[in-house]
């Protein structure tokens, strides 16, 4: 394959290197946004690309449909139809889901602090204002799952900022829980807190009590600082706490009381707290 000289450049070189390792890539224009659809594809009148909600596939050879344009085909990447985009490109992006990974996009220092207290360590890539935490595995992408946190995986794109540091960990339940919608509340009588713990009583994997304490404190802070969708936030927070601490039996009534107290201070009833906790246990199979 001969690479046209007029589209050689740093971004294309990076894209070709990534594509050779199986990472689907696409160019981004200024502002970290994908190139707009061509006239034929405007408004998805073409039917869209495969795996998009609209019917397809689209036969457009250009850089259309945002993340769905991402490819590992070097002939497409160096084609005349992509040449103008590469000449104007401000960055390279990739489709995390297509590469088999999930990106937790932490947009500021507060979000990074939350991740360090709440999520398992994994490969980390510095960004302009925060960090990308990369996990092995895919899920549905979702924006604003908590303040300063987006999830980019399937049907999403992320800017390529380098390989980062650290080993890539498996996608944890705590990340999956962030995008889970609150299930309908169940009609059951309130239970005593001791009946809601259901710890498995196994060996606790947490090296020090500080890890658990910090996780509970961050969970309380998350509930306390929420300004909307309180019930959904409470449920997602309970789910995150249980996904990290619910299997080893280290949670006590005192910990759960702190979470319930924070939720009730935001207007949740004891029944709502009980239902959210029980539904989180059920979702995680605890």
At a glance:
The protein has 286 residues and is an alpha+beta fold.
The overall pLDDT, averaged over residues, is 83
Strand proportion, as a percent range, falls in: 5-15%
* Helix percentage range: 25-40%
Number of strands: 10
Largest sheet entry: 6 strands, mixed
Task: Give the radius of gyration.
Answer: 22 Å
Number of helices: 9
State the order of secondary-structure elements, H for helix, E for strand. Answer: HEEHHEEHEEEEEEHHHHH
Poorly predicted segments: 1-8, 186-190
**Distance between the terminal alpha carbons, to the nearest Å?**
54 Å
Structural class: alpha+beta
Shape: elongated
Account of the 3D structure:
The structure is a single chain. Residues 1-8 and 186-190 have low confidence and may be disordered. The longest helix is centred in the C-terminal third of the chain and has 17 residues, at 209-225. The chain is of the alpha+beta class and 286 residues long. A hairpin with a 3-residue loop joins strand 1 (25-29) and strand 2. The strands form two sheets. Strands 4, 5, 6, 7, 8 and 10 form a six-stranded mixed beta sheet that branches. A four-stranded antiparallel beta sheet has the order 2-1-3-9. The relative contact order is 0.11. The chain has helices at residues 10-20, 74-77, 80-88, 109-118, 173-176, 209-225, 230-245, 253-265, 270-284; strands at 25-29, 33-34, 91-94, 101-106, 123-126, 131-136, 142-146, 149-152, 158-159, 169-170.
């Amino acid at each position: 394959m001969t690479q046209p000289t007029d589209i050689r450049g740093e971004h294309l070189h990076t894209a070709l290197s990534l594509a050779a390792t199986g990472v689907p890539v696409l160019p981004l224009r200024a502002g970290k946004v994908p190139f707009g659809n061509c006239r034929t594809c405007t408004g998805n009148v073409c039917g869209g690309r495969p795996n998009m909600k609209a019917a397809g596939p689209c036969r457009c050879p250009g850089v259309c449909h945002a993340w769905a344009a991402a490819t590992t085909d070097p002939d497409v990447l160096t084609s005349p139809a992509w040449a103008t985009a590469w000449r104007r490109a401000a960055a390279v992006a990739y489709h995390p889901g297509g590469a088999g990974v999930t990106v937790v996009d932490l947009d500021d220092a507060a979000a990074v602090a939350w991740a360090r207290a709440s999520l398992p360590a994994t490969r980390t890539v510095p960004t302009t204002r925060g960090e990308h935490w990369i996990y092995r595995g895919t899920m549905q992408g979702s924006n604003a799952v908590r303040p300063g946190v987006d999830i980019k995986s399937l049907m999403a794109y992320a800017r390529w900022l380098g390989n980062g540091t650290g080993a890539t960990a498996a996608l944890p339940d705590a990340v999956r829980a962030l995008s889970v919608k609150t299930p309908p509340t169940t009609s059951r009588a309130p239970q005593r807190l001791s009946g809601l713990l259901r710890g498995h009583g196994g060996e606790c994997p947490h090296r020090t009590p500080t890890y658990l304490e910090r996780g509970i404190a961050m969970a309380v802070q998350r509930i306390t600082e929420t300004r909307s969708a309180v019930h959904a936030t409470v449920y997602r927070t309970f789910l995150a706490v249980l996904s990290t601490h619910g299997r080893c039996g280290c949670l006590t009534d005192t910990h759960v009381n702190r979470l319930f107290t924070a939720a009730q201070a935001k207007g949740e009833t004891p029944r709502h707290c009980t239902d959210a906790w029980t539904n989180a246990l059920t979702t995680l199979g605890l």
